[in-house]
């Protein structure tokens, strides 16, 4: 499946609790923090939920 790099580009202030929890479970939490994950269905579902808060790149 490959790896992806996820960078948080917007704040979670005034966002629903489920979106905040998704950002934390991805390993983010601050703007411009970057993490790398394997691309799998569970990560893809999380990214769909918070797509407006993050930037995704394939590695």
UniProtKB/TrEMBL annotation:
Gene3D superfamilies on file: Ribosomal protein L30, ferredoxin-like fold domain (3.30.1390.20)
GO biological process, alphabetically ordered: translation
Any one Pfam family match given in the protein's UniProt record, by short name: Ribosomal_L30
GO molecular function: structural constituent of ribosome
Domain Large ribosomal subunit protein uL30-like ferredoxin-like fold residue range list: 4-54
UniProt GO cellular component terms: cytosolic large ribosomal subunit
InterPro entries, A to Z: Ribo_uL30_ferredoxin-like_sf, Ribosomal_uL30_bac-type, Ribosomal_uL30_ferredoxin-like
Family: Belongs to the universal ribosomal protein uL30 family.
Quaternary organization: Part of the 50S ribosomal subunit.
Protein name (record): Large ribosomal subunit protein uL30
Organism of origin: Mariniradius saccharolyticus AK6
Gene behind this protein: rpmD
């Amino acid at each position: 499946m490959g790896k992806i790099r996820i960078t948080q580009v917007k704040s979670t202030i005034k966002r629903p609790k489920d979106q905040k929890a998704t950002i934390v479970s991805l390993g983010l939490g601050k703007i411009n923090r970057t993490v790398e994950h394997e691309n799998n269905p569970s990560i893809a579902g999380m990214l769909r939920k918070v797509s407006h808060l993050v930037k995704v790149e394939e590695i």
